[in-house]
Amino acid sequence: TSLSLDLTFRIRFNQRYATRPDRKFVYASEYPELYVRYKRGFIDTNYDFLSLRVEDNVTMGLVGESSYSVEVGGFLTNGSMTFIDYKHFGANQTIFNQASESNRFDLLPFYQFSTNDIYLEAHYEHHFNEFIFNKIPLVRRLNLQAVATANFLTTDTVGNYVELGAGVEHIFKFMRIDYYWAFRNGNFFSNGFRMGIGF
Questions:
Q1: For residues 45 and 82, is the Cβ–Cβ distance under 8 A?
Q2: First to last CA, the chain
Q3: Measured between alpha carbons, how far is 15 from 27 in angstroms, rounded to an integer?
Q4: Cα separation of 118 and 108, whole Å?
Q5: Ramachandran angles phi, psi of 139, nearest 5°
Q6: How far is CA 23 from CA 18, 20, 26, 141, 145, in A?
Q7: Nearest alpha-carbon partner for 89 in 152, 21, 137, 1
Q8: Which end of the chain, N or C, is less packed with Cβ atoms under 10 Å?
Q9: Minimal CA–CA distance to 75: which of 106, 43, 98, 41?
Q10: CA 35 → CA 7, 55, 132, 145, 176, distances in Å?
């Protein structure tokens, strides 16, 4: 039996918007978004969790567009807690991925490196759009788009974990295939294909 309070605040700097009689229009900010999360356990648990996350999308003209997310967090107190209260990361041990979900690790085992201490995770993904395949005769007609990813995680349980990936999206207009390499503390950890569906 446990009870927890979980609060997340999203902060948008220099947010602009316009109001009309029937609706409100919110314009994208040129600054990254900041997320502050606080979680407190009660009754049979007793812990305090705090995290900060910064994320943004960056347009790079003809070269494509990037998205990144950096999050640092940890437990201020962890006097009494169960494994379900640990910080769990977006892991995957199937051949499928969620193409629209960027804050994930595609080769990280489920729950193996969950922590009740401090952690740092970072995710970077770049969509080249048609910058690469548009320069290859015949292939350009397929409208394929290249994508590159890099993921990083450091905790007391995993040490330093890095994933690097290269993929092709918009296969048949809806499919994406990536190949990933994972390294733990500088040593080879795992590799494999992942397939996703998205638009």
A1: yes
A2: 42
A3: 7
A4: 18
A5: -65, -30
A6: 9, 5, 10, 41, 36
A7: 152
A8: N
A9: 41
A10: 10, 8, 34, 30, 29
